[in-house]
Write a structure and sequence with these properties.
The complex is a heterodimer of chains A (about 400) and B (about 190). By secondary structure, chain A is α/β, with parallel strands linked by helices. Chain A has twelve helices and 15 strands. Chain A has two domains: about 240 residues, Thiamin diphosphate (ThDP)-binding fold, Pyr/PP domains (Rossmann fold), CATH 3.40.50; about 140 residues, 3-Layer(aba) Sandwich (Rossmann fold). The longest helix of chain A is centred in the middle third of the chain and has 30 residues. Chain B is of the alpha/beta class. Chain B has six helices and seven strands. In chain B, helix 1 packs across helix 4. The chains are: A alpha/beta (about 400), B alpha/beta (about 190). At the A-B interface, strand 8 and helix 9 of A face helix 1 and strand 2 of B.
């Protein structure tokens, strides 16, 4: 196959087929459904040899993947929003059991109010589950990243599950040209290898056992260490992919026109793609702006952020999720990463795009112009583009 | 960049129209992006779909607010929807109707075109009598009106992606290409 036009969801389906996922289990939820429908098509037409297991909930879907991984099978699932929240308990299981599961997440706002549109609250709420998290900005990147994710997840030193995020509708249902790499090249990049740490009837063992205070902590430490070390593996997997397929994405925190920038905006997901257009426009007007994209949120790119901070006057963070009681989810993490840094740029958190509110070029332009004016002592957080002042919000009796 | 907005009703094939158009444009080597209105579609309810076309890679990932072209698949939508909202002056408005462009009273400074895609679809047996599928016919007309894409590319994209009656669908596009009536904006 070569370049074809497809949705971001189909990019996930094609990637799972190219990766020869041996077990797929998923429960339908808008806007994830078409990923699994396409995989079901592949399976029924015989194009994909996989055990497709129908389940009654997302919780069971994750359990199937964990069990498949325990037997050494390559597995794949996908979900969104409430479905991901229902899985939460088992996400810890997957990471703790070192199950290299790949999961497509179609970022969708969390209810209530009921919404099918995008924001990042669902996956940000899984921050501490031990999963590696990638956020994509194009359908091509979705396909490439799922393949890279298998490379990282199955690395013997890492063995952690990975989420590959795409924004609901902006990628999931949007058609773009996608280059589908040849099967042979994908097989060479991520060969199916049987892990030595699997359940085997010949060599009985247990997984997920009870552990007392004398040893539990060490097990958690090993997971923590694997996550730390995955930084290097993520960068290598991306570079290796680039050499083989001609596309790489710049590791954990790709930057755009940041070299001589006065201010940099840090974005995540599809807003990043739109922001590049705005950066070019503002550069033409002589404004020294740059862009950094949080491609990988876990492990967190703290060194990359510290490097970025050393040369800019201000960093703005566009948060498409909010941590109740404090601040935007990325903002707090970015601010934390700057704690050790010698240079401390001004910071401002722009909370926008919540529940699918469109992040247009005009919105991002407004944010950049605001960031260019930021001075010491200014308000550090703003819900950008709120339509009604608080006093006007009335509750229906 | 050229931006198109399709107005139709759920089940008429507006989203598929934008997909076929994407494939046709892609066959000509341009970059393309298509998406449905990010909503909950229901059969019969007004729906919208969008297509962006450019010679350079398309980076904007946001809704379309000021299209260069609007395509209306169901004339009854003219009563309930503001189909010209944001449509650029000098742009294109293509409507599936039996009326001629001169007979329509729409406040729009640009190129108006009409084609009876419903009659073409019925004649060629596309969809049912009560719900003819007009999306492939309208794309033929779009190719003629805008000159954006060749008819051959549209019919090639149809053959590639329409599972049911690809020949009749390609014939519908061809017939609409020939029959579409255009009232160009005075220079």
């Amino acid at each position: 196959m070569a370049k074809v036009v497809m949705t971001g969801n189909y990019a996930q389906s094609y990637a799972s087929k190219l990766a020869r996922a041996q077990v797929v289990a998923a429960y339908p939820i808008t806007p994830q459904t078409s990923i699994v429908e396409k995989i079901a098509d592949f399976v029924s037409s015989g194009e994909m040899e996989t055990q497709f297991i129908k389940v009654e909930s997302e919780h069971s879907a994750m359990q199937v993947c964990i069990s498949a991984a325990a037997l050494g099978a390559r597995s794949y699932t996908a979900t969104s929003s409430q479905g991901l929240l229902l899985m939460h308990e088992l996400l810890f299981w997957a990471a703790g059991q070192r199950a290299p599961i790949i999961m497509g997440i179609i970022n969708r706002a969390v209810a209530p109010p009921w919404s099918i549109w995008t924001d990042h609250t669902d996956s940000m709420a899984q921050r501490d589950t031990g999963w590696i998290q990638y956020y994509c900005e194009s359908n091509q990147e979705v396909l490439d990243t799922v393949l890279q994710a298998y490379k990282v997840a199955e690395d013997p030193e890492i063995r952690l599950p990975v989420m590959v995020m795409e924004d609901a509708f902006y990628l999931s249902h949007t058609i773009e040209a996608v280059d589908v790499p040849p099967q042979g090249a994908v097989d060479a990049y991520i060969p199916l290898k049987r892990s030595p740490w699997v359940l085997d009837i010949e060599k009985p063992t247990r997984m997920g056992s009870f552990m007392g205070p004398d040893i539990y902590m060490e097990y958690r430490y090993i997971v923590a260490k694997a996550m730390q070390e995955s930084r290097k593996v993520i960068v290598e997997a991306d570079e290796d992919y680039g050499r083989r397929f001609g596309r790489s994405y710049g590791g954990l925190l790709p930057t755009y026109r940041c070299d001589d920038a006065d201010v940099v905006l840090l974005t995540i997901g599809t807003a990043s793609c739109t922001a590049k257009e705005v950066v070019d426009e503002l550069r033409k007007e002589g404004k020294k702006v740059g862009l950094a994209r949080m491609r990988v949120f876990r492990p967190f790119p703290e060194e990359e952020i510290a490097r970025l901070a050393s040369s800019v006057r201000a960093i703005g963070v566009v948060d498409r999720s909010w941590g109740f009681g404090y601040a935007g989810t990325m903002f707090t993490e970015v601010a934390g990463a700057l704690y050790k840094s010698k240079s401390k740029p001004l910071m401002k958190d722009y909370i926008t795009g919540i529940g699918g509110r469109d992040i247009t070029p005009q919105v991002l332009r407004g944010i950049y112009l605001d960031l260019l004016k930021v001075r010491e002592g200014d308000e550090e957080m703003e819900w950008w583009g709120l339509r009604r002042p608080e006093k006007e919000v009335k509750h229906n009796a | 960049m050229f931006e198109i907005r399709f107005h139709g009703r759920g089940g008429q094939g507006s989203v598929i129209a934008s997909e076929i158009l994407s494939k046709a444009v892609f066959l000509e080597g341009k970059d393309v992006q298509s998406f449905p209105f990010f909503g909950v579609e229901r059969r019969g309810a007004p729906v919208q779909a969008y297509t962006r076309i450019d010679d350079k890679p398309i980076r904007v990932k946001a809704n379309i607010y000021t299209p260069d072209c609007v395509v209306v698949l169901d004339p009854s939508l003219l009563k309930s929807q503001n189909v010209t909202a944001g449509l650029k002056e000098g742009g294109y408005l293509l409507i599936n109707t039996e009326k001629k462009p001169e007979e329509l009273t729409i406040d729009f400074k640009g190129n108006m075109a009409t084609v009876d895609a419903t009659a073409i679809a019925l004649k060629l047996g596309l969809g049912s009598k009560s719900a003819p599928i007009v999306n492939t016919a309208i794309l033929g007309a779009l190719a003629k009106v805008t000159g954006l894409v060749k008819l051959d590319s549209i019919t090639a994209a149809i053959s590639e992606s329409v599972p049911n009656k690809p020949e009749a669908n390609a014939a519908a596009a061809k017939e609409a290409f020939e029959k579409v009536l255009i009232r160009r904006m005075a220079a």
